[in-house]
Design brief:
3 helices, four-stranded mixed beta sheet, mainly beta, four-stranded antiparallel beta sheet, 8 strands, about 180 residues, Immunoglobulin-like, elongated
């Protein structure tokens, strides 16, 4: 019984100390609190997905064989952050991954073609950009990267039907030159 009383007194002392959250003071000063709109509270932020075949990117020295791989890049995670501003949905998409050197690889600069696209459920393209992401790789193992596209803005959706795609994409294949 004495142990329970002692524990209760200790907890009460901890709660009355000045080190904790001052609820009364928080009511007086709200200058550091960011205003949150109703739209932000709705909680709709489109998901980010990888399309089949876009999670890996290989660069070869010559023929496309495993012995000719210069480097291989892989996307390991994607995420997003959303905010409603002036009738638009502003999104920031982050793509994380790593680059491994292959048998023909060496340390230096590599360029990864990363596309981020926003589409409606009916496949209407709202946003689509390919950015060459440059990073330095070294011969001592995997090099990790995080690519961020923070320029995505679409009209405020009236339905929850937007999908964000992220992945490696070299863009349209160039036609062979004819003589």
């Amino acid at each position: 019984m004495a142990a329970i009383f002692l524990m209760g007194a200790t907890l009460a002392a901890c709660q009355s100390a000045g080190d904790g959250l001052d609820v009364a003071g928080a009511e007086k000063d709200k200058s550091d609190i960011e205003r949150v709109s109703f739209e932000d509270l709705r909680g709709y932020c489109p998901t980010v997905q990888l399309r089949e075949g876009t999670a890996y990117f290989n660069v070869y020295e010559g023929d496309e064989t495993s012995q000719n791989v210069r480097y291989q890049a892989a996307i390991t995670d994607v995420t997003r952050q959303c905010k409603y501003e002036n009738g638009q949905l502003a999104m920031k998409v982050a793509v994380a991954g790593r680059v491994l050197l292959g048998p023909q690889g060496s340390s230096g600069t590599v360029k990864l073609p990363i596309r981020v696209a926003a589409l409606t459920g009916g496949d209407e393209v709202l946003y689509s950009e390919i950015q060459p992401y440059t990073l330095e790789v070294n011969a001592s193992g995997a090099t990790q990267f995080i690519y961020t596209d923070s320029d995505i803005r679409v009209s405020q959706p009236d339905a929850r039907n937007i999908v964000i795609y992220a992945g490696f994409d070299e863009g349209p294949k160039k036609a062979a030159a004819t003589n």
